[in-house]
Specification:
The protein is of the alpha+beta class and 357 residues long. It has helices at residues 2-9, 14-36, 38-49, 55-84, 89-125, 137-162, 167-172, 176-201, 241-245, 272-286, 322-342, and strands spanning 209-212, 215-222, 226-231, 236-240, 250-251, 258-266, 298-304, 309-317. Helix 2 runs antiparallel to helix 4 (55-84), helix 3 packs across helix 4 and helix 10 (272-286) packs antiparallel against helix 11.
Length: 357
């Protein structure tokens, strides 16, 4: 038993062993406390460095580096704590060899994640950053995600080489796996090039309402592989860029105006004079609406239906978001009801006359 303790701890005197274990715990606790304060410390540093910049900019810088730095401080604390433990020479060489590799990889990951966060937060860090790209958030989103992906690839390559493997030889030696990799790369390249084509052609931008291949919704995000569309049922659809690039895309946001058609049916008991007054008054009232293009407004007696005299109201409204468009339509229909009530007529409804023989 004594030999095992000597091999593991390098000594057999229990008070010293316990003291060194306690020291290791203290070191880790201190590192954990410093890690917890990392965000406040970095905020103070960035506020000093970025004097005169907005609070939003300071927060963006802090968010880029705070979490990776906090995690790295904890790992440094673990490394120092393990180094303080009473270990035998052979055990210590093995354990510290592993901890050194862990520490190096942690450093690589900290730098990598910080750079990724930095790239993704750039639009919030620098005033007028989006405007430098013509105000097109789609282009900014695409290229920030592309740069992030490149950083991730380089990070993976560095970590693989850190373990002593040659990346080129590894890919060459994959054999059948290399073919799979090549096919996957072909798919990625196809989506990437389609994404570039979409950016250059500009059929839509982030925030636009589009319809493609039976899917309809708001564009939320675009990266080098796919475009994410939020449907009006609140579902999120991820569409490969290659599919978007080869399909017809309808961009409802780019409409110059919205076309609206309303048909109302009046009672057959309505006289010709009353019908004409209703038509004239509806036209007069709706022509006062600022949102409606007056030259497109049409109010006409349209048809003798089975149970009603049909009046068609058609107009174009200036491009406004869907909720505002629905609010305008409601306003128009309430105004139509007001006019009909004013002339003491009413809306028709389907009737069936039964004659007993």
């Amino acid at each position: 038993m004594e030999n095992i303790i000597l091999t593991v701890f390098g000594m057999t005197y229990l008070p010293v062993i316990l003291f060194k274990i306690a020291m290791a715990l203290v070191i880790y606790v201190v590192a954990a406390l410093v890690s917890g304060m990392a965000e406040k410390i970095l905020t103070g540093i960035f506020k000093f460095i970025l004097k005169g910049r907005s609070e939003k900019t300071v927060q963006a810088f802090t968010q880029s580096f705070a979490k990776p730095t906090a995690a790295f401080i904890k790992i440094v604390g673990i490394y120092c704590a393990v180094n303080t433990l009473p270990l035998g020479a052979t055990v210590k060489v093995a354990v510290m060899g592993i901890m050194t590799v862990v520490l190096r990889i942690a450093l690589i990951l900290m730098v990598s994640v910080s750079l990724q966060n930095f790239v993704m937060n750039m639009p919030d860090m620098f005033d007028g950053f989006v405007e430098k790209f013509g105000g097109n958030r789609t282009i900014v989103s695409f290229f920030t995600k592309l740069v992030k992906a490149l950083i991730m690839v380089f990070t993976l390559v560095i970590i693989i080489e850190e373990f002593g493997y040659d990346v080129t030889s590894l890919i060459t030696g994959l054999g059948l796996g290399g073919l799979t990799f090549a096919l996957a790369a072909q798919d990625i390249a196809s989506n990437f090039m389609s994404g570039i084509t979409i950016l250059l052609d500009k059929p839509f931008a982030i925030g636009d309402w589009i319809a493609v291949n039976g899917m309809e919704g708001i564009v939320e995000e675009m990266n080098f592989r796919s475009t994410k569309i939020r449907t009006f049922d609140n579902a999120l659809i991820s569409v490969p860029n290659s599919r978007l690039g080869s399909s017809s895309v309808t961009n409802w946001t780019k409409m110059n105006y919205r076309k609206t058609n309303i048909i109302i049916g009046l009672l057959y008991s309505t006289t010709r004079e009353t019908l004409q007054k209703v038509i004239d008054d509806i036209y007069s009232e709706l022509s006062q609406f600022e949102e409606i293009k007056t030259d497109s407004l049409l109010v006409k007696f349209d048809n003798f239906s089975a149970s009603s005299l049909d009046v068609k109201i058609s107009y174009n409204s200036y491009p406004i978001p869907a909720p505002a468009h629905m609010a305008l339509k409601e306003k128009v229909q309430l105004k139509i009801m007001e006019v009909v009530e004013r002339h003491e007529t009413d809306f028709a409804y389907n009737t069936v006359t039964v004659v007993n023989g």
